[in-house]
């Protein structure tokens, strides 16, 4: 059981470049989430998917898109990266009706 | 928008000391969670409190949920260097609402325990 996996671990982009952050979970969880973590601001929800086939905006969705490819995978796309998107991105998943969210190890993104 | 104010932001103490971290909001939460995060890793859940006034203990850690479900505290007794890390509180939804498990996080407390 790998839990929640994220790729890549690190990425450096130039302003305007695009990229997709990948997330997969092998726990058969229904719900998946994307957060960003910035110093002094805790984690902020970007997008979430309550179940396969549905996605919704979180607190800070601007500049991002998501795809719930199947029950296992939830990807986050930056179409045109900006320096303000420099952050650590975490994916999480949980089973419906349960409280615990399980987090991946994060992707560290630097946009120059 | 629900907000959680966590304090203090930084805490540097000696081994053996006690400490308390606070998490406050003007909003009611249906549940409140505490996470611990190590450098280079994702947060790991320590505890969930759901009932107003609830107290949960995890070895030397004591968690309390306020009676009105707007605030929570984490108390560590006789802190050890292994307790060093980032502690985050996070609230789920509001009473009667459908939250789909969305979490609102506090800013975090960076705890350093010196030997």
How would you sum up this structure, described in words?
The complex is a heterodimer of chains A (112) and B (115). With 112 residues, chain A is mostly beta strands. Chain A is built from no helices and eleven strands. Chain A is globular and about 40 Å long. Chain B is mostly beta strands and 115 residues long. Chain B has strands spanning 5-7, 10-14, 19-24, 31-37, 44-49, 55-58, 61-65, 71-76, 85-92, 103-105, 109-114. Chain B is globular and about 40 Å long. The termini of chain B are far apart. Chain A binds chain B through residues 4, 31, 33, 35, 40-45, 48, 50, 56, 58-59, 90, 92, 94, 96, 99-101, 103-106, and chain B through 1, 4, 6, 9, 31, 33, 40-45, 48, 50, 88, 90, 92, 100-108.
A few lines on this structure:
The complex is a heterodimer of chains A (112) and B (115). Chain A is mostly beta strands and 112 residues long.
């Amino acid at each position: 059981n790998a839990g929640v996996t994220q790729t890549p671990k690190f990425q450096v982009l130039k302003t305007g470049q695009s990229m997709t952050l990948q997330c997969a979970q092998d726990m058969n969880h229904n719900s998946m989430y994307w957060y960003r973590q910035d110093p002094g601001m805790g984690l902020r929800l970007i997008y979430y998917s309550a179940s396969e086939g549905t996605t919704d905006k979180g607190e800070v969705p601007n500049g991002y898109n998501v795809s719930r490819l199947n029950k296992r995978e939830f990807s986050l796309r930056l179409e045109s990266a900006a320096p303000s998107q420099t952050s650590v991105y975490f994916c999480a998943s949980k089973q419906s009706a349960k409280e615990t969210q399980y987090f991946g190890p994060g992707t560290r993104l630097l946009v120059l | 928008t629900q907000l959680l104010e966590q304090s203090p932001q930084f805490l540097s103490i000696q081994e053996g000391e006690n400490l308390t971290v606070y998490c406050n909001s003007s909003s009611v939460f249906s549940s409140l969670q505490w996470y611990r995060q190590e450098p280079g890793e994702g947060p790991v859940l320590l505890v969930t409190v759901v009932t107003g006034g609830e107290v949960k203990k995890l070895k030397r850690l004591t968690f309390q949920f306020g009676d009105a479900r707007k605030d929570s505290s984490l108390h560590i007794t006789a802190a050890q260097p292994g307790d060093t890390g980032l502690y985050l509180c996070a609230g789920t939804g509001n009473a009667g609402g459908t939250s789909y498990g969305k979490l609102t996080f506090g800013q975090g407390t960076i705890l350093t325990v010196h030997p």
